[in-house]
Amino acid sequence: MTAVAASWPLQVAVFAALRAAVQPVPVYDGVPADAAFPYVVVGDDSSVDWPVALDADGEDIDVTIHLWSRYDGHKEVKELMGKVRAALHNRALPLSAGLSLVSFRCTSERSFTEPDGKTRHGVIRFRALIASDPD
Fold first, then answer.
1. Which of 11, 21, 30, 135 has the most CB atoms around it within 10 Å of its CB?
2. CATH fold of the domain at 7-132
3. Which is more confident, 53 or 37?
4. What's the CA gap between 57 and 51, in Å, rounded?
């Protein structure tokens, strides 16, 4: 792992970029019980070591974004997915000191109807490569 943990600074940057891109739609880390549709959730992530160079470490982080809608059809969730992709794919998101975002790319997108027959769910996955600045 990097000398400075990268997943939290990345989540902060993703959250800020999403809030700006999808407003007035709310973006959540934890969804309130009374949340109104539509909304976006910064979901789970996973991280593995990424050896950048002999003198630098890094992390390879997969980030999942969920989009939820009750619109009758996929239009709303797909429009939100487009805004999320435009806000994050190949963007230079600012991270905290000691970290550099090398790459942030969309790796997959999926939309489907939940078993209740009313809720539309979009899932977008991104891959981040983050280098720890050498001392």
1. 21
2. STM4215-like (3.30.2000)
3. 37
4. 5
